[in-house]
Every structure is written in structure tokens, then in C-alpha cells.
Amino acid sequence: MVIIFVLAMMALPLSKNIAKRAKETELKQRLQILRKAIDDFNRDWNRDGDNLLGSSASRTNSPAKR
């Protein structure tokens, strides 16, 4: 009975670490998606002075310099 208890107590921290690693992996993937979205936004709305250089940039849609 003691052996089973000891093995169970050793397995408990391992299961917590596995759950923590799974959450960290998911957060890392979401962070990569967010970073890509920010990079895409910056690339589309890159400025050269007052001229907007992005492919979807136009004077009428620009929230900047109104």
C-alpha cells in the first residue's frame, strides 16, 4: 500500500508539469499568430512621411493625419 502511495505522489507533480507545458505551448502558438498579425499590419501601413505605402492604404481610409 505504501508503494502505491509513493508512486502516486511522484506522479502528481508530473501531471501538473504536463498540463503547464500544454498551456505554455498553446500560448506560444497564439503569441506567434499575434506577432505575425502585428507585422502584417505594420507592413501594410508603413509610412514614408505623410505618404502611406501599404497596399490597402488610401487617403480616404487613413485614420492618420486627418
How would the blueprint of this fold be written?
Layout: H1 2-44, E1 47-48, E2 51-52
Antiparallel strand pairs: 1-2
How far from one another are the termini?
Answer: 76 Å
Helix and strand sequence: HEE
Approximate shape: rod-shaped
Total beta-strand segments:
2
Roughly what percent helix? 55-70%
Radius of gyration: 25 Å
Biggest β-sheet strands, sense, barrel: 2 strands, antiparallel
Mean pLDDT: 79
Q: How big a fraction of the residues is strand?
A: 5-15%
Strand order within the widest beta sheet: 1-2
Separate helix tally: 1
Q: Which class of secondary structure composition applies to the elements? A: mainly alpha
Low-confidence residue ranges: none
Task: Give an account of the 3D structure.
This protein is mainly α. 65% of the residues lie in helices and 6% in strands. A hairpin with a 2-residue loop joins strand 1 and strand 2. The longest helix has 43 residues. The radius of gyration is 25 Å and the shape is rod-shaped. The termini are far apart.
